[in-house]
Structure formats: C-alpha cells, structure tokens
C-alpha cells in the first residue's frame, strides 16, 4: 500500500500532539494537586465537586455569622451586667433615702445628684451599639437610637419589639438582639401606676413640660385604673390659659376642685386627679380658638413601669423633700415602690440574661456541628478531586516514554528514502 509523505507527517504529528497533550495534562494535575481540571475530565464528579465547594463556602459563612452573633450577645451581656450593678447601687441609695428622720434636705440634694448621674448612665447603657454601629436594644431597627430623654425630662423608646436574627446553620437561627421595650420598659410595677407624655404636635416654644408624676392615693388610682387621661389646653373668654382633664376612655370631663370643667393653669403647680399627681411647667400653647387646637398631654395608666421611670420618680421625690411630714410620707411611699420595682427589674433582666446564656450555648454547639460538617465535606471533596501522586508519577514517566518514542520513530521514518537502497 502506497503511503504519501504528507500522510506520514500527519500521522506522526497527531501522535506526538496526543502524547504531548496527555503529558501536559498530567503535569498540570501534579502542579495543582487535583485530579479534575475541567468538567470534561469527569462530568459527574465535577458536578459533585461544585456542590461540595458551595457547601463548604456556606458553612464557612455560618461560622463567620456565629462569630458576629457571639460578639453581639457578649456585648449585650456586658451591658446588662452594668445595668444590674447600677440597679444595685440605686437600691442602696433608695434605702438611704428612706432615712427621712435623719437626712436633711442638703443630704437629699447629694442623693438626687447621684441618682440623676445614674439615670444618665442608664441612658447610655440602653443605647449601647455593637462593632457595626447597630443599637443592640432597638429591636429590628438597628440604626435607630432606641432611647432618648425628652425636653420634659421623661424618656421615650423609638425602637420596636422585634429581635434581629443570624443564621448559624441551615436549620438554626439565633436572636442576636433584644427589644429595649421588653428589657427596660415592660417591667412589672408593684402597684398600678402611669406614665405621662406630651403630644408631639404641641406648638409651644419653648415646649411646656409634664413631669413623670406620682401616684399619691393608690386606692383612688386603682379605682380609676385602667382608664387614661387627656389634659387639653385652651384660652377662656378672659384670655387666660386654662385646661380640661378628660377621661379618654369614657369621654367624661373631670371637673376641678371648684366644680368647673375648665381649670386655671399655674406653671409648676401640682395637678391632682384620680389619685395621680403631676406638674406641667412652661407656657402651653392655648390654641387659636378655631382650627388650631391647644397643646395637650396624656396620662396613660399601666401595670408596668420603666426602669428609667422608677429612677426618675425616686429622684423627683427626693428633690421635693423639704423636711415636712407630708414630703416625708410621700418619699416613704416612693421608696417602698422603688425597691419593689427595682427588684422586679432585676428579675426581668436576669430572665433576659438566662436567655442570652442559652443562645450562646446554642451558638457554641452549632459551631461544633458546622466544623464537623465542614471537615466531612472537605474529606469527601478531597477524595473526589485529589490527585494520586504515585499513580500520576508512573503515568508521567510512561507518557514521557511514549512521547520520546513517537519523536524518535518519526525521525527514523522521515529519513527513509529509495536513494538509501541504490548502491
């Protein structure tokens, strides 16, 4: 059979190229340490490798999430420990304040100064932020400062009741924050009480302020509970600023001591109604007698009392201590309520701390599961794609031999010619 010279060259070229390609691939495998360099090498194994790599990446992210969660929960635990230390000091201060027969008004001024300093400290702790700048007690609204002091000296909560979560594994999500409302606001009060608020739409400038207030007659207030009050300002025919007190539940206007619905307003003078006492200071806007209403304030009854409210009421009662029997009796009642409410605050915070411990335990056990899962996945992945160096070395030597033989045989065949046989 006649074989053309070009055919000889083509056959030799294909053979050497194939040998060179096989040799190069083996060299690449040995350099990378991987058996599969492209999906074409083993389509089934390549698909499995892709899935396993995704699983490893996902597990590594879960482990990073756990690091973030642990940092956040440890920060919250530290903040709550500081709050409990603060509460313990305020319990000691309240006990001291109960010595009404011994302490002088000047002594109470020193106690008020410390109480107010502790209230400022509490506000800072309630507004604790994590390493990412997120507020840990604002619920879902991590970017929103949860607590603020109003111009009237009261405190407001601006967060919500949610709890942010982080995925610790495919099946485990852990709460990494707590609502400040639950931790610091919704604390059981030893007695029915109330909180006061100014209407955000009030127009007085500077704004009039309403005090935190006190329950001065518990039996009378208990009979009123759970109704609420609205204090509405207006101007009478003589041009004087007056106000009405309305039961917002029944719509009934409660007359003053003079039997009239409209009450004369004197800045800072105690307003006593339904066993509650509070003051409004400043000059409330009385309205224009037409479309624009006057300023208003609300008194909302509740069976709960915020921690800041408890401390503020104690501070106000000590500040009002003038040595009279009436102020002593009032302070004695406030001290009793304060000690009971602070004990309730300790219980409430301790419950939250117990939950923090449980979450940290969950994170630790989940971390171990993730590490075990990652190790197993990487082992399977290694079995699929890792190169057997002993087999590859033997194969490389064989391929080098094949390539060398192909090159040498081509040289010999290419050198053949009929002239070699002519003598």
UniProtKB/TrEMBL annotation:
Boundaries of every Flagellin N-terminal domain copy: 4-141
Major location category of this protein: other
Single annotated GO MF: structural molecule activity
Keyword Transport in annotation: no
Biological process per Gene Ontology, one example term: bacterial-type flagellum-dependent cell motility
Subcellular location: Bacterial flagellum; Secreted
Keywords from the UniProt entry: Bacterial flagellum, Cell projection, Cilium, Flagellum, Secreted
Keyword Secreted listed: yes
GO cellular component, one term: extracellular region
Family: Belongs to the bacterial flagellin family.
PANTHER family noted in UniProt: FLAGELLAR HOOK-ASSOCIATED PROTEIN 3, FLAGELLIN
Name of the protein in question: Flagellar hook-associated protein FlgL
Source organism per UniProt: Gilvimarinus xylanilyticus
Organism taxonomic ancestry: Bacteria, Pseudomonadati, Pseudomonadota, Gammaproteobacteria, Cellvibrionales
Originating gene: flgL
